[in-house]
Amino acid sequence: MKQLRLGLSMFRMGYHVAAWRHPGNQPDGSMDLAYFRGITQAAEAAKFDLVFMADELAIRGADNPAGSRCRSSHVAELEPITLLSALAPLTERIGLVSTGSTTYSEPFNLARQVLSLDHMSGGRAGWNVVTSWGKEDALNFGHMDTPDYDTRYDRASEFVDVVRGLWNSFDADAFIRDQKSGIFYDPDKMHELNHQGQFFSVRGPLHMARSPQGEPVIFFAGDSEAGRAVAARAADVVFTAKQDLADAQAFYASIKDRLPGLGRDDEDLLIMPGLMPIVGRTKAEAQAKYDALQALIDPRVGLASLYDRLGDLSDYDLDGPVPEPKDPAFRSRAEGMYKLAQREGYTIRQLYTTLAAGRGHRMVIGTGEEIADEMQLWLETRAADGFNIIPTHLPDALNDFTELVLPDLQNRGLFRTEYEGATLRENLGLPVKSLR
Ligand SMILES: Cc1cc2nc3c(=O)[nH]c(=O)nc-3n(C[C@H](O)[C@H](O)[C@H](O)COP(=O)(O)O)c2cc1C
Questions:
Q1: Is 55's C-beta closer than 6 angstroms to any atom of ligand 1?
Q2: Mean pLDDT of each 10-residue bin along the chain, 436 residues long
Q3: Was domain 5-281+363-428 assigned CATH 3.20.20.30?
Q4: For ligand 1, is residue 105 a contact (CB within 6 Å)?
Q5: According to its UniProt record, which protein family does this protein belong to (predicted)?
Q6: What is residue 412's three-state secondary structure?
Q7: Which residue of 14, 33, 127, 245 is 20 to 30 Å from 52, comparing CA positions?
Q8: How far apart, in whole angstroms, are the C-alpha atoms of residue 162 and residue 270?
Q9: Where are the domains of the chain?
Q10: What separation in angstroms does the CA of 30 have from each of 40, 283, 291?
């Protein structure tokens, strides 16, 4: 029986905009290694495939409606590759996946950092490829604004190729390290990259042995046409935000249908949408948990949560319809939000209240059985190969999921009770990948 793959996103102490205000949260957790250690070890005890860190390169929302920014916890966060490196020796089997921007870093630096994490964790690292879209990110890197869409994706595509090329600098058996003969490595098994492209010129090689898992696992987040093309070619896992089954199935098919033409098999690439479960012993208990979180949303923060996708809507009637997005920097998410508002007939106020929880990811409020049903349905109808669990707030939402949903999934034979392998790639059931 096909198994579900599960990630846990640890970003921002939970994805709900009011997560940090929940009495069960540790409000200074986002700067505290011990907080992340507790969450990661709990996720490992539950046999999650991986913990996942999203990332941003600035405090976003400078132009957000007045009074919203000082109410946000997003202004204090640890750098994710550093954080995951600290978590590596504190864990044994769980995968450690960090977001890394292709817009504002150099492939050599990123290839080196991720491969270091991979070696230090015994082959448990992954890199989530993103193209940074925030204007505030641009301002921290000497640019006035985000590069246009095509430029960002052209650069991302070349960036991924260079990183993979660097990860393949040495064959798996290149290092002889023969103390007697004095030969450290076999020169025939070292490869200079000599890359000259539109954005990068990188000679290589990367001075690091090959990954214990061939190459670290590549996640890809971004689902416009340009994004899908890069994902189908180079990614191992696609992380996406899909609100309903039909959209998720269409997305799944659109990626998987490209694989045979690229010489890849269906199982070579996994699709993992985000899923925010709000789970209770009864539906009423789950609903009460949701309502308690919603009551913590300050209206200024709610409106600000739409700002960077749909623009400043403060001049519009909050109880009127949602306007169509105009040339947004984050097209897929803006369109998803707009479609949701149209389908459900949401006003601006209703939209931000709904999205304040899942931020564009699917949210399900229910019992463990209901959530397990939904996950099974998505798995069996080619909408998902697994999910990146997007908790409302941490650690409570992880504990609820582990206690109330996972045993049901395990009873159905849909989720492991023990890790199968030592590396992230093995646990995800992905083939060892290399360019040679
Ligand atoms: C599920 C998902 C997660 C993302 N996570 C991040 C992130 O952590 N940091 C970031 O800067 N961008 C993130 N992005 C933004 C993408 O890299 C990209 O800029 C954006 O999706 C616009 O491209 P698209 O229209 O192809 O989706 C994410 C996108 C998606 C769909």
A1: yes
A2: 96 91 94 98 98 94 74 90 98 98 98 98 98 92 91 96 98 97 98 98 98 97 90 97 94 97 96 97 97 88 83 85 84 85 91 81 96 98 98 97 98 98 98 82
A3: yes
A4: no
A5: Belongs to the NtaA/SnaA/DszA monooxygenase family.
A6: coil
A7: 245
A8: 22
A9: 5-281+363-428
A10: 13, 30, 24
